[in-house]
């Protein structure tokens, strides 16, 4: 499927980011992947080319916590593919730390990656997105923070709520340029990080979800693709929860009632 549009996905070599990139590649977008790990990046590039049949996939090493690095990533993307039309600001981290043990460094590090990294990615991409016929920004937030809470993730949830606060004002500022800003809020998604936790843990996670399964990374990719399309140009500052109904039950008993 031919497509003249280009997407840049940050944090794209593993997990949800790789799933987002896969959906765009399968739908014919030119896809630039960026992350810090060059080995994972090279593997992701080759894998996505193989599964999508799309040769317009490129890994560009970059660090979202550096504005200069992200400017270089955007520059390489535009030089290679001719434009940048969609930015999926997905890069993030989710370490666990309880309040009584959380350090200042842990707090600062997660805000540097999840919030400042989002900001720098967007700032670096703005000129290219303004030049697009239909510039799109899609932020990967989470149900944790904006909607739910979980012990050990107070700092993580804070960053995810902050992203939505940012989104609403950014959408106003960028509306005059024809750029939309929206967010996808994943629930429990099956990624590489869950594979080593064991079947008992995974089954307990599934039990709390009305659909009785964990989400797939491409479930998030399809939501991002909706926001990215030219036909979604009148949708901005919206957040879409993709969680299999996870946030709906009042109690675990309600799932099976």
Could you walk me through the main structural features you see in this protein, from its secondary elements to its overall organization?
This protein has 257 residues and is of the alpha/beta class. It has one domain: Rossmann fold (3-Layer(aba) Sandwich). Helices cover 46% and strands 13% of the residues. The protein contains eight helices and seven strands, in the order βαβαβαβαβαβααβα. The protein has a seven-stranded parallel β-sheet with strand order 3-2-1-4-5-6-7, sandwiched between helices. The model has no long low-confidence stretch (mean pLDDT 96).
Keywords, separated by commas or semicolons:
257 residues, globular, seven-stranded parallel sheet, single chain, Rossmann fold, alpha/beta
Query: Helix amount, in percent?
Result: 40-55%
From the alpha carbons, calculate the radius of gyration and give it in angstroms: 18 Å
Q: Helix count, per DSSP?
A: 8
In the CATH hierarchy, what is the class? Answer: Alpha Beta
Order of helices and strands: EHEHEHEHEHEHHEH
CATH superfamily: NAD(P)-binding Rossmann-like Domain
CATH fold title = Rossmann fold
Q: Give the CATH architecture.
A: 3-Layer(aba) Sandwich
The major β-sheet equals: 7 strands, parallel
Number of strands: 7
Estimated share of beta-strand residues: 5-15%
| Rounded average pLDDT | 96
Number of domains: 1
């Amino acid at each position: 499927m031919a497509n003249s549009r280009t997407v840049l996905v940050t944090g794209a070599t593993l997990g949800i980011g790789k799933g987002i990139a896969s959906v765009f590649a399968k739908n014919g977008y030119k896809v630039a992947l960026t992350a810090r790990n060059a080995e994972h990046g090279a593997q992701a590039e080759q894998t996505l080319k193989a599964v999508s049949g799309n040769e317009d996939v490129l890994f560009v090493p970059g660090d979202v916590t550096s504005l200069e690095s992200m400017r270089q990533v955007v520059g390489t993307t535009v030089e290679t593919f001719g434009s940048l039309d969609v930015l999926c600001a997905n890069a993030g981290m989710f370490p666990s730390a309880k309040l009584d043990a959380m350090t200042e460094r842990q707090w600062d590090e997660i805000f540097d990656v999840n919030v400042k990294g989002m900001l720098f990615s967007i700032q670096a991409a703005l000129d290219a997105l303004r030049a697009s016929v239909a510039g799109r920004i899609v932020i990967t937030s989470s149900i944790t923070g904006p909607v739910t809470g979980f012990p050990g993730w107070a700092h993580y949830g804070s960053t995810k709520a902050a992203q939505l606060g940012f989104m609403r004002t950014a959408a106003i500022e960028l509306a005059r340029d024809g750029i939309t800003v929206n967010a996808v809020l994943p629930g429990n998604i099956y990624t590489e990080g869950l594979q080593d936790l064991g079947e008992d843990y995974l089954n307990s996670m599934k039990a709390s979800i009305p659909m009785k399964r964990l989400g797939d990374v491409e479930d998030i990719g399809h939501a991002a693709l909706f926001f990215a399309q030219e036909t979604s140009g009148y949708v901005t500052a919206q957040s879409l929860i993709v969680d299999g109904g996870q946030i709906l039950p009042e109690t675990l008993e309600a799932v099976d009632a």
